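Readers of this paper often ask what the protein records in our data store actually look like. This encoding replaces a full spatial description with a residue-level series of whole-number codes. For reference, a complete record is included directly beneath this paragraph.
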Amino acid sequence: MRFLFAFVFTFMLSFSAFTQSAGSFEYQTLDTTIIKNGIEKLNIYYRESCGRCTNMMDAFDNAGIEYEKLDYDIEENKRTAEKLIYNTLPNKAMGYSTRFPLVEINETFYFCIANHHEFTLQLLEFYSFE
């Protein structure tokens, strides 16, 4: 019985941690209310092998949205992105993970987007009202 309780408790604890982590960090989702004066700078850090990156860039290209493509595999771009990530972290002592594409909007850096498709649609919608 103790084993069953320990198993269920451990499972529920790990499940709870997993469900709370997705979307809980402020740089995982787009909040267009913080973009008060429009988008002055839109940078996308991508990797050639990243399908999510290609989807996002294709959507922006098709909508005529201007942005700067930055290949993450170029060392200078990688260092810049890592510096932006580090400056964004609320707790510098903790590690971090990235999920491509990495997106910089004005001075906000999104490095672990929870749902790139939803993020892209929100950004396209924002541009349609701008």
Q: What stands out?
A: The helical segments are 2-21, 51-63, 75-88, 116-129.
